[in-house]
Structure formats: structure tokens, C-alpha cells
Amino acid sequence: MTATLVLYRASGAPVSTVFRRAGLGGNDPFAPWREIAWEGSGAMSAGRLRFDGTLDVASFPHVETLVVVEGELTVETTGAAPLVVQASSGVVIGAGTALRLATSSSALVVFCAAACPQAAQTGVFPLQAKANFKPSANSLPKEILLGPVPQCRSDNVFNEESIKYLAGTWDSTPYHRIVRAHPVNEFMHILDGGVRFAEPDGSVVSVAAGDAVFVPQGAAIGWESSERVAKFYVVQTASAAIEGK
């Protein structure tokens, strides 16, 4: 298995990632449609689902980020206007949220979910490409870079501190870094630009705008980009998430 799990390619090209049909526990509202590519440390899962219909959920059972790659998904919560999530946009759903999920036709969605026994954040939080970017607080260490230090920005829209689950939008100027163990579980949906992920065996996994990937914590990968890259992301430090349960 490669370190970089490709969940979706916008080109329509097939992916080599192996998916299995399963729900995330007995009360998973998406259980009939869910296909899991990764289920591991930090109680985190990632994969895809093709949903068609309407779901009324009294209390969403976990934290989940959904990015629509085909079709559209409507999310309704009490007291708020319906949120229509179209292709290349997304939403984070906090654990315990009451909501209705609906499609007018089939929608293909990539997801990143995590168990959350003691949620502090409820509600729905849109992910948008036109984000309110601010300089990232954490810069890349110079010792891992194979070129100039990049300028990175982020817009964090959701932070469930109890499980160290952070989601938002990020962008960066081009950069190149060594192959190293990835410090977090990370879901990425590329919005702009492209990335070449170097694998430990010397192979390269290339992704472009519209593609979605998941990299487990500890997987050894390198990064090389020759243009601005923007992405939706979810990151989670698995050891911290386990300790927080």
C-alpha cells in the first residue's frame, strides 16, 4: 500500500486505493453508502460515499468533514437557511448536531470522520475555496526543506479540541521537502495547483485540482509543488486524540 491514499481523481481516472463497504458504528446515518479507505489511529476514518435521498439525524454520532466532488448536498439545521454544498465545496458537521441531509440527485462525497465522545463544537461549518486566509502560525522547519521557505496561509473553521480535529482551508507558495514521517492524520482535497508526493520506494503520487487524498500519521512522504497550492484539509494528531478520550 502506498503512503498516499487517493480517494478521488477529478479526471475520472481509476484509483488504486482499496475501499470496503462499512458503517462507522451502529448509528452511522451514512452506513448504507459509505466506502472506507482508511480506519485507524485517533478513531479517524476516510473514504467516499455516494448518497441519494434524504436523512433526518437527531444527533450526528461523530465529527465529519464532507467534500462534494460530484452533484450537490443540502444541509439543513434549525434556525438557519439551508446550506447547499456544491462540487469543490464542503462542510464540517460537529458531533451531536441535529440536521437534515438531502440530495436532488446522486452526490459523490469524500469524507474524513472521527469519533468524538465529548463534543464541544456542534453545528455545521462551511468550507469554501474563497477563504479568509491568515498567515499560518506554524512554519515548516528549514531542516526538512529542499529549497526556499514557503509562505503558508490558513483559515481554520472548525476545531474540536477534545480530539485534536482541525479543519479549514490552506494555501502555500511552491516548496519542496524531504521524505519524512507525516506528523498527523491528514485529509486533503486539492482546490488549486498540484502536488507530487514522494513515496518511500522512490515512486511518486501526483495529484491535481479536484483530487482528494488521505495520509495516515506516520506514513513517510515527501512534498513537491511548483505552483501555488490550495486545499481543504483535516488534520488530527492521533496520540493526542487517544489521550483526550
Automatic annotation (TrEMBL):
Residue stretches making up the (S)-ureidoglycine aminohydrolase cupin domain: 167-233
Domain of life: Bacteria
Protein's UniProt name: (S)-ureidoglycine aminohydrolase cupin domain-containing protein
Natural source organism: Collimonas fungivorans (strain Ter331)
